[in-house]
Amino acid sequence: MASDTLANTALLLIGFQHDYFDPSGILHGVVEESHRVSGTLENTIKLIEFFKDSDMTMVNTPIVFSELYDELENPIGILKTIREVQAFKEGTPGAETIPQIKSYGDRIIELPGKKSFNSFSNTKLHTTLRERGVTRIVFAGCVTSICVHASALQAFDLGYEVTMLSDCTSARTPIEQEFFCSDVFPLFSRVFTLDEFLASEGVVS
Fold this sequence. Notes:
Blueprint: H1 3-6, E1 9-14, H2 18-21, H3 28-38, H4 40-51, E2 57-60, H5 77-85, H6 99-102, E3 109-110, H7 125-131, E4 136-142, H8 144-157, E5 161-170, H9 174-184, E6 190-192, H10 194-200
Parallel strand pairs: 1-2, 1-4, 2-3, 4-5, 5-6
């Protein structure tokens, strides 16, 4: 295993909250099929298990809104929908990180403050990663076409090497997932399956 590389690598977890990943979650139906096809959660947990004892930094960036959604002024698109259906509201089960991720405790750094698509916006993500000497970010989570895409583009603009895991991420549909992983992400990142990434790090899955 390339431990020197892992010391400069961060796993960024996006959207691993009840409203997306719990069957009772408000927006679970939006990504349920893509979750199932790609095996997003199962593969992400497998990834974490492989590297939990390594030098890899692991960060979770949940999106949480205030009770009245004051952060959203005249929202459109998905943010309008989120406000209308009352998803990711502070103090509700839907906004909580799912137990499969929470069970790792302090091994996964949770950075609050995210109010929109980009995980770097209104959080200490960039500062935290720079302090740890991170130069490469590996992405897992959802939604591929929205928060994952926005965060990955920002990471690229900030000078990070971006790695996208096609079966650790979910879009709104499997077709959308395939499009982003085959036609969009290769424009600025390396795209691997989990097994391909593990092989590139010298790990036998």
